[in-house]
Please model this.
Amino acid sequence: MAGSEAMHVDAALDRRVDPVAEADAYRAMLLGLLGDQDPAQVQAGLPDQLGELLKEAGPHLRTRPAHILDAEIVLAGRYRWILAQDEPPLIGYDQDRWVDRLHHPAEDPEEMLALVRVLGRSHLALWGRTSPSDRARVGIHSERGPESFELSFRLMSGHGIFHLGQMRRTLAQVSGSIPSH
Model:
């Protein structure tokens, strides 16, 4: 992990921070995972890392990358609301409920990854064409309060790092290469 301030992924995975009840700790954890890494570079690398993990999982693939996909979908709207409206409300969501109600075990992980790629490219293009003043624009998150476009973008980068770590740990556990925690 680049950056001297970056939190170790295993430490974050062991913390079990509730994103709603412990919103400040959750935000700090995700930003800690990002550290001083460039959030755009982190997000740009996410789809390829997901693709590598899907290939590596092979017959061990039991859980689709739904949390990452759903976050990309939700953030697509949040980013645009923040940039287009003055202090718009940003509705929180229960990522586990989204997975339970919107996804099916038969979903093709490659199709899900293709959508992550498209959404990621769109987010990176939007980021690349925004000014510092646009990045400072704020929406009001229903669970965490004011969040700027920049903060949301950085949180999404940490979120990707977190879920990649989760996937790596789970894959190592099911393939028998490390003991479960």
Notes: The chain has one domain: 9-174.
